[in-house]
Amino acid sequence: MTRPSFPRSFAEFQAWFPDEAACHRYLVRSRWSDGFVCRSCGHTVGYEFRRRVKSRSRATVPPSDHFRVLWECASCHRQTSLTAATILDATKLPLTTWFWAAFLVATDKRGPSALLLDRQLGIGDHKSAWFLLHKLRRAMVNANRTMLRGIVEIDGTFVGGYQPGLKGGRQQKARKAAMVLVGVEVQPYSRLDRKSGQESERERSGRVRMTVVRAENAEAIGAFIEANVEPGSTVRSDGLWDYVTATRELGFAHDRRVQGDIRKTGQVVRHAHQAIANLKSWLIGTHHGVGRPHLQAYLDEFVFRFNRRGNPEAAFQTLLGLGSTHAPVRWATITGAQDLPYYYAGDEVPDENDVTA
Ligand SMILES: [Zn+2]
């Protein structure tokens, strides 16, 4: 799929997408870059027509924009919605709201919270803003994404648990923590020191992956490696015995770093620790803690933003589901986090209203 060029600032974005018609034109260009193609019979002549719809937030959309664009095949007369098989399917929010939200999520360094999005876009209803963001988060998981390769640091961390500054009931709730496994690609490179003329070997972080697991044990670590790390790669860990067992069983090379190595390397798994620190500061700073059943969705957002830094346009299109097909996600599935892994460290009974991080 060829991609139309992309605005570089919010002002430019507003000029590009001032109304529903502009958003529709962009969808057409993204979807049918070489012209209309019928999904049913493959015919390449189609007619565009508009059907009136009731818009949910009348305040933000003029009445002239209360329509939905459909295409009808000139041969078999099958009608196709431009938003079919994308997360926009059957939405009651205007396209401009979706586009603005996807732009903010794709370009803002930390991404908006539901509260901020509601205020900035004038959605006028916190639940709709929350739901919209969670739908975008569901679009961030690409099942066909390529695996981490080379040297991959893996470490586990508790999210939630004891937090200084929280009092009474909130502290009691926060104390039940979730275990998250973090994988980070390590990219070695050499840097020339101008003064000495010497080359030094250095490392930087590549892509990351994060998953909620039941515990940091060999079984969970093995499943994480199988799902995220390309065979032939080297797993680097802090030397916990479960990593030895998991890598041996799967036939991965294991760079086992123990406390004695700290003098040489600074930290045993420096890149994983850096990613964990960034994750925790983002969860607290931007979202002020998240509902624990939804933690995986927030991990997906963090990973999505981290892995696509420097490519906002691809991020924007992925968010709107323009490059792939995503089944529509229902309200009940999202509010109940029914499609997310739902583990609690220590196997405690989950409480819907728990707050973590
Ligand atoms: Zn057709």
Outline the fold blueprint:
Layout: H1 10-16, H2 20-31, E1 46-52, E2 67-73, E3 79-81, H3 95-107, H4 114-121, H5 126-138, E4 151-159, H6 168-174, E5 178-192, E6 199-213, H7 218-228, E7 234-237, H8 241-250, E8 253-256, H9 262-265, H10 270-287, E9 290-291, H11 295-307, H12 312-319, H13 331-335, E10 355-356
Parallel strand pairs: 4-7, 7-8
Antiparallel strand pairs: 1-2, 2-3, 4-5, 5-6, 9-10
Residues 38, 40-41, 43, 73, 75-76, 78 line the site of zinc ion.
Can you offer a commentary on this structure?
- This protein has 357 residues and is of the alpha+beta class.
- The protein has two domains: 10-138, no CATH class; 151-307, Nucleotidyltransferase, domain 5 (2-Layer Sandwich), CATH 3.30.420.
- 36% of the residues lie in helices and 19% in strands.
- It contains 13 helices and ten strands.
- The protein has helices spanning 10-16, 20-31, 95-107, 114-121, 126-138, 168-174, 218-228, 241-250, 262-265, 270-287, 295-307, 312-319, 331-335; strands spanning 46-52, 67-73, 79-81, 151-159, 178-192, 199-213, 234-237, 253-256, 290-291, 355-356.
- Strands 6-5-4-7-8 form a five-stranded mixed sheet, with helices on both faces. The chain has a three-stranded antiparallel sheet with strand order 1-2-3, with no helix packed on it.
- Strand 5 (178-192) and strand 6 (199-213) form a beta hairpin.
- The longest helix is centred in the last third of the chain and has 18 residues, at 270-287.
- It is elongated, with a radius of gyration of 23 Å.
- The two termini are 39 Å apart.
- 32% of the residues are buried.
- Residues 345-357 have low confidence and may be disordered.
- The structure holds zinc ion.
- Residues 38, 40-41, 43, 73, 75-76, 78 line the site of zinc ion.
